[in-house]
Amino acid sequence: MILWCYDGTFEGFLSLVHESYIHKTIPDRITADEITPNLLDERQWIETDDAIARRVAASLNERFSKETLQRIKHTFLCDDSTPERDLLLYIRLGFKSPRALEDFAHPIVYAIHGYERRLLSTLHKMNAYLRFEELEDKTLYARIAPPRNVLPLMGGHFRTRLRGENFIIHDTARSIALLHREGESSFVRIESFETPTLSVEEGSFRRLWKTFFDSVAIRSRLNPTLQRSHVPLKYRTYMSEFWDNG
Amino acid sequence: MTIDEKLTILTDSAKYDVSCSSSGSVRTLDFGGVGSVANGGICHAYSADGRCISLLKILFTNYCIYDCAYCVNRIGNDIRRAAFTPEEVAGLTINFYRRNMIEGLFLSSGIISSEDHTMRLILKTLRLLRHTYRFNGYIHVKLIPGASEDLIIETLTLADRVSSNIELPSSQSLALLAPDKTREKVLQPLTMAKNYSLEHQKHPIGMSTQLIIGATPESDLEILRLSTSLYKKTMLKRVYYSAYIPINNVKNLPSLGTPPPLLREHRLYQADWLIRFYGFGYNEIVDEAAPNLDERFDPKLSWALRNLHLFPIEINTADRETLLRIPGLGVRGVDKILKARRFRPLNVYDLETMKISLKRLRYFVTVGGKLLIDRSMDYQQIQTELLSLPKPPPSAQPTLFEYFYPTVMGEL
Ligand code: SF4
Q1: For residues A140-174, b (16+ Cβ closer than 10 Å) or e, as one string?
Q2: Minimal Cα–Cα distance from B356 to chain A, Å?
Q3: Average pLDDT of the segment spanning A113-138
Q4: Within this chain, do residues B246 and B374 fall inside the same structural domain, yes or no?
Q5: B258–chain A Cβ distance below 8 A for any pair
Q6: Rounded to whole angstroms, how far apart are CA atoms B351 and A103?
Q7: pLDDT higher for B399 or A241?
Q8: What ipTM describes this predicted complex?
Q9: Which domain holds residue A72?
Q10: Residue B240 and residue B128 share a domain
């Protein structure tokens, strides 16, 4: 089995696409994780090369539609699984014939659509379920740990929604954060952080929200199964209405 | 009274209204500050009964001078009463909104002192939100029937959607159970709104109404006929159906403890969906011979079973409209098929790759000229087999589905 390892960055992945063409090879497995190979495995480290990555990106841009490029990006962000090999096959398929990517019944094309759908569904859930808390200086602060890497796609939505506000969205699972301050956004690594101080009003609004949440259910229609299918338990950590004493 | 107590009381009395919707509104307003309305709406939470929480849905007050028999807030009822101030409602809205707890406000109200007084309080709340807080999120208000035209018109310029509930599907029932209301009076603010947008050549504001199901004897045929004419004449965007939950002990209404007809409500939503998005006429779904929806099958399946002579339909050649009429295919399935068959003719395995379930489909289609069932099957056999299929998981109300993927999730 041919096993390719790389550093997990998008640049690294694009370098790997290049490698695949140069050596006319499709590895059996691509991974960014530390793994102990089998004796029979042929393992190879693919070096990330920014210049090569930029060249590959340029030819992707030339060759593919905007939707396809989006789809590649979205698929790559599915870090809950290892979509790299499918993505490589998808890109190779597209280079051979862009029309082949429209064959929705092709297993690879279908699989890529599936990755994208799952990513967008996570994105949609995070946009809906994250909660901001107001800090002392009025900055809005939210903590998330989504099952797929959606933070890079969250900026636009909250920038339009919270015009004129400063906000921080902190992905604690990946130790990255989106900072939005005076109209400027940036991504930063967060190695360590202290729990920030909340504004004095924060507690009372959280209580009022809980009051609303508890009052809104119609008792003759209680349906915890349905509730759970909408809001899986893993999202509830961020939603103060599910805390017992919000 | 603390704001917490008010919130408890005024949320509690608002929750029996199902028309909590922020979907499908095209935004034309911009107030400069905080807020946007995401396309398709967003559920920020789901309450313990599984319903979407998207809006801060409250009554301004549950004081009321009216005496509608089906309503908790009717004048004679001995309940705890409360009233917000405009400042309180605006403050709650903006603060929940900034924390990403809601998409906006759904404000309804009992009639306090007079129609105009009530409308003015609501208007003041809207002005605070839009002008002082520059709130740009979603606002749905219940227009107060009988309020003056200038108040209604100003409200229209500040809200995203307005509604006025007809509640009872026939004038007789209305006269019997809501003596202060007539259909004309309830529709009057909606007619004003419609005329206003026509005169000013504006994109019409989203309008909706609600019908109570199961409180009075109207059949599904009467209900769907009424909805159809409301969609056409009054340009309503949505009609909501609400299974009646008995609250008061009144002689002309189902007694306390009668379970709300949830399945019937669900079937009506499905039928409504077919009318709005699948090109069905109400009289294809119900007719004089069978004026009520079959509770065993969804309305599309039920229609197909009554029209077996139109089937089987060839997946590879039928047009979009025809494909949409096949039980087991929704908008998403149809779009997959249309997309994939542009490329090459499809076979059964392609359908499987695309995760299109054949469970129901197989009775109604051919794929590349091939039938998927025994040619000799008749209506009885198909019906028996369909009835023995495992039941789908507990159904959510289609209204709620729409929040996520407006055209995709309401599939039958
Ligand atoms: S006017 Fe509205 S709040 Fe008042 S009794 Fe009738 S339905 Fe209830």
Answers
A1: bbbbbebbbbbbebbbebbbebbeebbbbbbbeee
A2: 11
A3: 94
A4: no
A5: no
A6: 12
A7: A241
A8: 0.85
A9: 2-121
A10: yes
Number of Cβ within 10 Å of residue B374's Cβ equals: 7
The reply to whether B233 and B340 lie within a common domain is: no
What single-letter DSSP state applies at residue B310? Answer: G
Domain count, chain B: 2
Q: Which domain holds residue B304?
A: 299-387
pLDDT band, very low/low/confident/very high, at B411 (cuts 50, 70, 90): very low
Query: What is the C-alpha to C-alpha distance for residues B314 and B94, in angstroms, rounded to an integer?
Result: 53
Mean pLDDT for B352-370 is 89
pTM of the model: 0.79
The reported pLDDT for the residue numbered B391 is: 61
- CB-nearest to A104 from B4, B35, B339 is B339
For β-strands B161-163 and B138-142, DSSP reports them as parallel
Residue whose token pair is 């990555």: A53
Q: ∠B34-B40-B43 over CA atoms, to 5°?
A: 75
DSSP helix/strand/coil, B114 = coil
> With 80 as the cut, is the pLDDT of residue B314 above it?
yes
Q: Sort out which chain B residues have CB atoms less than 8 A from A219's CB and list them.
A: 49
Phi and psi (nearest 5°) for A98? -55, -30
Tell me, yes or no, whether A63 and A109 share the same domain. Answer: yes
> Which residue owns the Cα nearest ligand 1 atom 1?
B66
Confidence of residue A242 (pLDDT cuts 50, 70, 90): low
Q: How confident is the model at residue B402 (pLDDT cuts 50, 70, 90)?
A: very low
Q: Do A163 and B15 touch (CB under 8 A)?
A: no
- Which has more confidence, A125 or A237? A125
Instruction: Work out the pLDDT band at A56, boundaries 50, 70, 90.
Output: very high
CA B7–ligand 1 middle distance (angstroms): 19
B95 CB within 8 Å of a chain A CB: yes
Same domain for A167 and A223, yes or no, is yes
Closest Cα to atom 6, ligand 1: which residue?
A: B68
Q: In what order do the strands lie in the sheet with B138-142?
A: B55-59, B104-108, B138-142, B161-163, B206-213, B238-243
Three-state DSSP state, A6: coil
| Over residues B17-37, mean pLDDT | 40
Q: What is the length of chain A?
A: 246
Euclidean distance between CA atoms B48 and B280, whole angstroms: 34
d(CA A165, nearest CA chain B) in Å:
8
